[in-house]
């Protein structure tokens, strides 16, 4: 419809009255549709005249209908005159009153011909032609090829934040699932207070369904279901400012970046997709179908044809039960082109990615666990699911956390961009001589995850942006986490710390939204935080604070080291035991020379020690690998064991063990 307006001037006075334009899409009984464009019609029109207008437009479009090659029933136009129209659930017969319709927008009407046959799916009902303004929102490294490549990129193996991967992600791309879940989470987050926030995933051999109780869509211009399938039409992209600042963990799911994730994901998962949606104001459910075969056939006829089938129907009883407030969106994917995942694995991975939205202790005002959104997979509530990497990791941490926030600001003139991060450090101690991280990896392996890493290579950084896990961030650690000299107690204990990073919308994700944009100034500054390199980042300034109190880097570093050593003293059970009678020394200890803890008051000397099932004896010849201990060694060193030193008295726990060699 043209945006140009014309006016009529009435001579009785000098007032101007704006013309009224009506756009009516009429759905016909033979599954086709025509569009009527009327300017300043009479307020009332007899049904016969209205049907004649439809017939005239239908004859113009007949050639297009014939090109599609489908056989259709004949519309009984004579009986249609005496039948009725359906507009948003209201029946219109005899007289068509235009006051029912909204001017300047597309009004969808169903025409019945009295045959008793009615279609629920209509050809070319929705136009998905993208707006050329989409180009204004492109990421600097983004193109459609990039988006498609990201969708088909497999879950990484051997790299990333997590040390484990699940077999299902080798078969089903991670970005494909999360794009659909992101859309649903964004939708339910805008529900009014008191309305149920629910996302329900149902996975079968022949169908995948994602249901959310969000505001839904209809046929209106501002809330059209066509926007779901139109590239670049996402309204969430403009909401990024809502995700800036605030309090950690920054639960504001404004994930939308390019406005094409849902449609691409569906086309990747299956050959046909049916989207059904309803708003609270609409009596009808509107549908949109993406069919691979038909899209290809229409493209061969016309390269500019971006139209797809759609329809209207009454809401199902199950849909009304899942969303009592009356609005929802349901995406159903048929004829899956990928292997269906093992359901427990799918539950665990989705819970890992969206954990703070499923259950959260941090945002509660009462100290109790809250459930911001209800997530279900095949009827099972994810809040009640045990297992998964996040839940298993949480069970093995000990003691109080150490955290602070950083505000990043660009230094360039003329820019006011900023980003916020919260770094939360958690300690995973040695339990009865066994590293907690090893216990975590063993537990995950039992759950069916593919574990390819060990304690020394285990990723110790987990990054979430707006509460959603970015599982492909490839950082094993950040420089700030690793303190202390080689082979010192502090350095060894720092290896038991994991950093959970929460980011606001100021940080830019990769096109797949599973990683951070690697060249972004804020991403680089965060990745290098704590680095002692002489190279300075002149593009970003940082401000460190905790509970509103500004802190210097030196203060934070000192507090962190004290926290690590305190966690070590309080919780580590290194469990190195002597196999012979000990010689106890508790006077005149040179703690620094012996390399023992500064507050250690006594040590035990042993000739034989057993650790992790292996015995070590005095006189045994060993090779000390380069960098395994402090000193000027530039290569491996061969030595003979003299004694073993275990800190503290025998009835005390958590004493470090040292070896004296010559």
From TrEMBL:
SUPFAM superfamilies: ATPase domain of HSP90 chaperone/DNA topoisomerase II/histidine kinase (SSF55874). InterPro entries: HATPase_C_sf (IPR036890). This is Uncharacterized protein. It comes from Microthlaspi erraticum.
